């Protein structure tokens, strides 16, 4: 079983509340979402593993069991073309849970007219393979979001 922890401080809101049908409909996969605190921060890895996809607005880390976790920093933030995001690791790097991956400011994303809400998704998973999914309440970076069996 893999434990997936929050990459950000904020409030857990569940995927159903993400203002994007691809995420709210769990088309990418099950998981939850974080409405982040509006201050400059670092998004950290939610698991130990290898960075297999790295973009300014999103990254995927795959653990030793083959579980891939997508962290998407805001909605439609690809349209910002990387502005306001600083990559702290590279694709192919091995990272540990809690290691800083991207530096960004959710307030700047919001000021640019995008939602700063961050889906945290278990890729290629089924909803019944996740347990203990956090869908409300305040979370700190590193707090448990769900278990993946």
TrEMBL record:
<keyword id="KW-0598">Phosphotransferase system</keyword>
<keyword id="KW-0762">Sugar transport</keyword>
<dbReference type="Pfam" id="PF00358">
    <property type="entry name" value="PTS_EIIA_1"/>
</dbReference>
<keyword id="KW-0418">Kinase</keyword>
<protein>
    <submittedName>
        <fullName>PTS glucose transporter subunit IIA</fullName>
    </submittedName>
</protein>
<dbReference type="InterPro" id="IPR001127">
    <property type="entry name" value="PTS_EIIA_1_perm"/>
</dbReference>
<feature type="domain" description="PTS EIIA type-1">
    <location>
        <begin position="20"/>
        <end position="124"/>
    </location>
</feature>
<dbReference type="InterPro" id="IPR050890">
    <property type="entry name" value="PTS_EIIA_component"/>
</dbReference>
<dbReference type="InterPro" id="IPR011055">
    <property type="entry name" value="Dup_hybrid_motif"/>
</dbReference>
<keyword id="KW-0813">Transport</keyword>
<keyword id="KW-0808">Transferase</keyword>
């Amino acid at each position: 079983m893999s434990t997936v922890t929050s990459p950000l401080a904020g409030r857990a809101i569940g995927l159903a509340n993400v203002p994007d049908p691809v995420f709210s409909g769990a088309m990418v996969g099950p998981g939850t979402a974080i409405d982040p605190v509006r201050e400059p921060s670092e998004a950290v890895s939610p698991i130990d593993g290898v960075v297999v996809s790295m973009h300014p607005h999103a990254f995927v880390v795959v653990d030793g069991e083959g579980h891939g976790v997508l962290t998407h920093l805001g909605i439609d933030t690809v349209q910002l073309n990387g502005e306001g995001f600083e990559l702290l690791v590279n694709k192919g790097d091995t990272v540990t849970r809690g290691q800083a991956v991207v530096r960004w400011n959710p307030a700047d994303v919001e000021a640019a007219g995008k939602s700063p809400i961050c889906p945290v998704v278990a890729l290629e998973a089924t909803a019944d393979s996740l347990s203990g999914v956090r869908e409300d309440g305040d979370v700190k970076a590193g707090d448990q979001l769900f278990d993946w069996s």
